[in-house]
Write a structure and sequence with these properties.
It contains 1 helix and 10 strands; from the N terminus they run αββββββββββ. By secondary structure, the protein is mainly beta. The strands form 2 sheets. Strands 1, 2, 4, 5, 6, 7, 8 and 10 form an 8-stranded mixed sheet that branches. A hairpin with a 2-residue loop joins strand 1 and strand 2. The protein is globular, with a radius of gyration of 17 Å. The structure holds nickel (II) ion. Nickel (II) ion (NI) binds next to loops.
Length: 144
């Protein structure tokens, strides 16, 4: 057996960021349905958003979408092969919307959520209904 050079060369330099308080991050903006990127993991963004009311039906053709509810309660309507259903996510719950599944998040009484998805993923997906004015079609904003 011969000795090989290390294969685990990082694809990019490690980030030298600072710790991020999620409560501080959430307190730094008021926009609804307009995620802020709090950090990244490999090719994924970790985003937080404040939400209230309804988002828009949309689908991500190439990626799952992970949700963690930080505050309040999030509802996600899903259109699946056997029909439409709704999942309710209380604070502390996680849920993954599978790629290719139409979904519409909503929060009647408001919520704060964390999402984990590939960098560049649009909030309104690859296909969507008409985007209402209160929904920000974005790949996420930097924290200010
Ligand atoms: Ni989505």
């Amino acid at each position: 057996m011969t000795s090989e050079p290390s294969q685990d060369t990082p694809s990019r330099p490690a980030q030298r960021g600072e710790p991020v308080s999620l409560s501080t991050a959430l307190a730094s903006f008021t926009d609804l349905w307009s995620p802020r990127i709090v950090t990244s993991v490999n090719d994924y963004d970790v985003r937080v958003a404040k939400v209230e009311g309804e988002h828009v039906w949309h689908v991500h053709d190439h990626t799952d979408e992970f949700f963690l509810v930080l505050e309040g309660e999030l509802t996600i309507a899903l259109r699946e092969a056997d029909g439409e259903r709704t999942v309710t996510l209380p604070k502390g719950s996680v849920f993954t919307v599978p790629r290719g599944t139409q979904h519409k998040p909503s929060a009647a009484d408001g919520a704060a959520i964390l999402m984990f998805e590939p960098t560049g993923t649009l909030t309104v997906g690859d296909r969507h209904d008409k985007v209402p004015d209160h929904v920000d079609a974005t790949t996420g904003h930097a924290l200010s």
